[in-house]
Amino acid sequence: MVFLLIGNGFEEIEALTCVDAFSRAEVKVTMLSVTGDREVTGRSGITVVTDAPMAQADIEKAEMLILPGGDVNRNGNYGSCAAAEDFIRRAFAAKVPVAAICAAPTVLDRLELINGKSCTCYPSCSTDIKNAVYAGEINAMTDGDLITGKAPGAAADFALTALKYLRGAEVAAEVAADMYHDFKG
């Protein structure tokens, strides 16, 4: 089971591209709400209905945790919620692979969960990376169990890189072809 954690202000294209790409590979993504409300509104004003509140999910049994970017430190999103930060810490403690895009790697860095790992993020957020190694403006990359992506425009590469990690290169290539996306991962 793959969990995607969202709160108010999330980046819609990053979240929903992951849900779409994974569903094309027949991998169920369960969207979890940080706030506990089933409806969550993204940074562009698009409201989505999540599958469950975060509090009902057993992160230790997840195959992967996906963290889209957006306004991650906004009230009602995972960067400003102690319970969500604990949820993310438990994912790392349980060795659950984590895929984070845009501003999300800055939260992982602040929590000191990716110390010494290479990552990418939204370019203007790169100065907030203090404990990890900012690898530059790369669309998507993997360092061990950490998958990171640059920005909304890299959402497809990010989703496919995470899918490749989870299900292999052949599955990611099939999904990329189905999307008519020139995936180099």
SSE arrangement:
Layout: E1 2-6, H1 12-24, E2 29-33, E3 39-41, E4 47-49, E5 52-53, E6 64-67, H2 82-93, E7 98-101, H3 104-110, E8 118-119, E9 133-134, E10 140-143, E11 146-149, H4 155-167, H5 169-178
Parallel strand pairs: 1-2, 1-6, 2-5, 6-7, 7-11, 8-9
Antiparallel strand pairs: 3-4, 10-11
Helix pairs in contact: 1-4, 4-5
What does this structure look like?
The structure is a single chain. With 185 residues, the chain is of the alpha/beta class. The radius of gyration is 15 Å and the shape is globular. α1 runs parallel beside α4 (155-167) and α4 packs antiparallel against α5. It is 30% helix and 21% strand. The protein has a single domain, classed as Class I glutamine amidotransferase (GATase) domain (Rossmann fold). The mean pLDDT is 96. The chain has a seven-stranded mixed sheet with strand order 5-2-1-6-7-11-10, sandwiched between helices. Strands 3-4 form a two-stranded antiparallel sheet. β6, α2 (82-93) and β7 (98-101) form a beta-alpha-beta unit.
